[in-house]
Design goal:
Blueprint lengths: L19 E9 L2 E2 L4 E5 L5 E6 L5 E6 L2 E9 L2 E9 L2 E9 L1
Parallel strand pairs: 1-8
Antiparallel strand pairs: 1-2, 1-5, 3-4, 3-6, 6-7
């Protein structure tokens, strides 16, 4: 069983002037993918964190500013996205082809 926190919901109490938040959704064939594993990898492809998407395909990470790779793994396939994240809210979508 994965110990990842529940994904989705509001960012209550998060100071977006000082924190870097990476969030988004995983999609496949025009629909969100629930239960996909989403990994956050640093600039050298080193594993940093993993969460499981919500029923709406949502994921969220708190990270440092920089370049990150987001990799989704699900029974329907695998998708990847590279993202340059700054302090504040950084939103993205990972599409599984």
């Amino acid at each position: 069983m994965c110990g990842a926190p529940k994904q989705g919901g509001a960012l209550k109490g998060v100071d977006l002037d000082t924190q870097t938040v990476i969030q988004g959704q995983v999609w496949h064939d025009g629909a969100p993918v629930a239960g996909a594993y989403v990994r956050l990898l640093d600039g050298t492809d080193e594993f940093t964190a993993e969460v499981v998407t919500s029923p709406e395909g949502e994921f969220r990470f708190f990270a440092a500013p920089g370049t990150w790779k987001i990799r989704s793994l699900a029974p329907v396939g695998r998708g990847e996205r590279v993202l340059g994240a700054d302090v504040g809210l950084n939103e993205t979508t990972v599409v599984i082809p």
